Write a sequence for this structure.
């Protein structure tokens, strides 16, 4: 009975010791065997592992690709328009031994917070070197690649591999929206005023050119008219001179008849002339010839 009473507890202790010395590593995990806080073995392949009970312990880490959402981050691009950026990163634990040495017992949560600091610093540096239009454009792949490449080296010191960084959303800070809208409105109004001023200047140039053209055309027309009028007067005088030379008496008669037609109209003013005035020569003649 005494032997049986002794063997049962011993068997229980042995079973407990065997069970506590065995651990299983899932295919989604990596494990470290620690002895007094020091790493004695790395178990990366899935399967069964063994450790010394009570002396050694097993710490497991996720071997899958992890995702980390960053808190909204305010950045100031090169054109001083502040933006609020919302991003996330995908990463994995690449070197569990280095990871343990870097974060100690803080584990994955401490590593994620340190990765946040790295990503925030890289995001500020990269986005601060470009304009807000580049950040707000749909083609931001180059910027995200620069952030990822900049974070890779720093994250490697934590035993992490940064796989991807994405900008989910970029907005203006709420307190800056009205000021930004007003500035944009003022810029558009200034551009409109510049366009109107340039249009008015162009219109004045066109009007001035048109006025100059009108003056030149009118002056040229008047000059041509004077030349034509002078030529016509010369031709008329030449005709009169030729007619007068051909028959002076008829020409004098014609001029007298024209003078009578113009002078002796109803309603004309009264003319006081001497009866023997030459104006009445053809009125006194029966033959139509000038009276002697």
């Amino acid at each position: 009975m005494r032997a049986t009473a002794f063997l049962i507890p011993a068997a229980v202790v042995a079973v407990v010791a065997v069970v506590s010395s065995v651990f299983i590593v899932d295919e989604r995990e990596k494990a470290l065997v620690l002895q007094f806080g020091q790493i004695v073995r790395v178990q990366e392949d899935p399967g069964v592992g063994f450790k010394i009970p009570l002396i050694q312990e097993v710490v497991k880490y996720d071997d899958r690709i992890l995702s980390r959402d960053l808190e909204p981050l305010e950045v100031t691009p090169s054109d001083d328009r502040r933006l609020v950026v919302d991003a996330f990163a995908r990463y994995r634990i690449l070197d569990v031994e280095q990871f343990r040495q870097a974060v100690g017992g803080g584990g994955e949560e401490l590593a994620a917070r340190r990765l946040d600091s790295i990503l925030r610093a890289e995001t500020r540096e990269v986005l601060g070197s470009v304009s807000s239009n580049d950040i707000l454009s749909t083609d931001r792949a180059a910027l995200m690649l620069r952030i990822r490449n900049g974070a890779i080296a720093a994250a490697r010191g934590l035993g992490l591999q940064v796989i991807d960084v994405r900008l989910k959303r970029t907005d203006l800070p709420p307190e800056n929206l009205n000021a930004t809208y007003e500035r944009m409105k003022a810029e558009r109004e200034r551009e409109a005023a510049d366009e109107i001023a340039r249009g008015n200047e162009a219109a004045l140039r066109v009007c001035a050119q048109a006025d100059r053209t009108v003056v030149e055309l009118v002056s040229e027309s008047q000059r041509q008219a004077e030349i034509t009028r002078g030529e016509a007067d010369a031709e008329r005088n030449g005709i009169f001179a030729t007619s007068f030379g051909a028959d002076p008496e008829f020409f004098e008669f014609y001029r007298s008849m024209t003078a009578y037609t113009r002078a002796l109209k109803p309603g004309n003013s009264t003319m006081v002339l001497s009866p023997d005035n030459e104006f009445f020569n053809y009125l006194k003649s029966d033959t139509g010839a000038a009276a002697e």
Q: What stands out?
A: The two ends are 197 Å apart (CA to CA). The longest strand covers residues 160-171. The chain has a mean pLDDT of 78.
